[in-house]
Amino acid sequence: MAELELRTIRGGEIAMIFQEPMTALNPVLPVGLQIEENLRTHTSLDRRGRARRALELLEMVGIPEPARRLRDYPHQFSGGMRQRAMIAIALASTPKLLLADEPTTALDVTIQDQILKLILSLRDRLAMAVVLVTHDLGVVAATCDRMAVMYAGRIVESGAVAAVFAEPHHPYTRGLLGSIPRSGTERTMLLSIEGTPPSLAAIPAGCAFHPRCSFATEACQIERPPPRGDRGGTAGRLLPPRAGRRGRVARRMSAAEPEVLIEVEDIAKAFPLPQTLGRQLLGKQRQAVHALNGVSFSLARGETLGVVGESGCGKSTLARCLVRLLEVDSGHIRFEGQDVARLGGAWLRAFNRRVQMIFQDPYSSLNPRMRVGQILGEALGVHRMRPRAAIPARIGELLDLVRLPRDSADRFPHEFSGGQRQRIGIARALAVEPEVLVADELVSALDVSVQAQVVNLLLQLQEQLHLTVVFVAHDLRLVRHISHRVAVMYLGKIIELGPTEALFSAPRHPYTRALLDAAPELDPTRRSTVAAARGELPSPINLPTGCLFNTRCPLAFERCFTERPGLTARGPRHEAACHLTEFGKQGAVGVPIVPTEVGT
Known about the structure:
CATH architecture of the largest domain: 3-Layer(aba) Sandwich
CATH superfamily of the largest domain: P-loop containing nucleotide triphosphate hydrolases
Shape: globular
Number of strands: 17
Number of domains: 3
């Protein structure tokens, strides 16, 4: 087709939701005008008709107060609402085909659940076909009818989702499914696919997967296998069943009384907003984003604490406060009894060496102008941990530790894949031999096979070095697999804290239950059609009175709107901040609890 013909189809017959809505939306145009732009191109509606249709679309995708939000700009929307606005633009002219490219990658599980259920409901309502691109196999199991597995630019297996999950035929598909953490295998080594995907500029001859395949033969190196049909609708090479070994169990916490390494007591952190001239003249109080609101917990030596919650709940702020990249406004962080906030000079430098952070984005956290050897050697020089002549040998040891070749020291960060860059970030953190690692969304941007490699590496290092780990993540399956205890955060507070299996099997807070219900099942035969949690996180500028979750909780009653619950023991080392569980294990005794509309 010519370009003019394509323009009539793009946006009209075929629409697309992009992976990152903040870069796909025009930052200088209100959202309403961006929806109307599609309507102006692909429909015959007049100005008033376009405005009415834009309002209908925002209502359709579930954006609250749509008439007011039409005039807002993309930066005034949350991540989930920006993705909804992208969907509204894509659906403006009722397309026949919707292409969704990683539409939930950067979203937490509750917003992901809402977006996926919205796409499926609109698919059925508009009789629309959907192509969903994702590396989250749980999303595939929960939403798709058919799936195609790609490797090195080709589809290596395709078929009905239930058939592929039940009996994968291609070694790569089997490797992907085996890399996912599953309940009942806590803190064991995950199955992983060794090696890295080939460069698309130099795809191997024969089967592209043969350098990484444990079933490869000589024929695989010469001949590219043709797709073969199968009774389950799959195409791929049929393999004999194989029950892979997941490795030995990593170190568990001792049953004896654990040695407390870090104590966090009632810390708070707020970020003041810029004050407008009008507010200054009127003498109004300066507004602030309340990121942390009285967080308390302790961390034992050798323990892994998982920290979960929706975007904007304060997880990353807590991580940065623990390593003192941010100063707390109030409260105490004690490391071996010493108040971290009051450390200075040589004491602070010693603390900085003993507590290290692995950042979420290895692209921006590694200096692009420094070679890997310089990046790893910099901290050794700052902390004077090795003589200058011994630093190259230590760099080689660190690269061996994270399973990277030693010649990586002479290369720049951009020459590595995402998973390899994350390994470099781990090596940099381990260079100064820390006792505590704070990992902020360590594997959020990695596919499941690379994720398994990084998780296995972290478990092995924790066992070898007896590290204490704070593991911040959205992926609940991964948190369950790697953590000894889990802290659930909501609007800057920990609302539930307990041993991993106790919290996952018997959650005490409605919000924790909503998070667990929102996580997609790996079983395509068990699909939920009910939204796990309604609405989005309230603004951290104006916090709700009473329980912070009362605006979204279907079980909220009068006391929830007037009195804020504190963390109270609900079992051995298990605490929850909820009025419903105050008098009993399953609910408040003597209080009539009925699901109601929020706010009534």
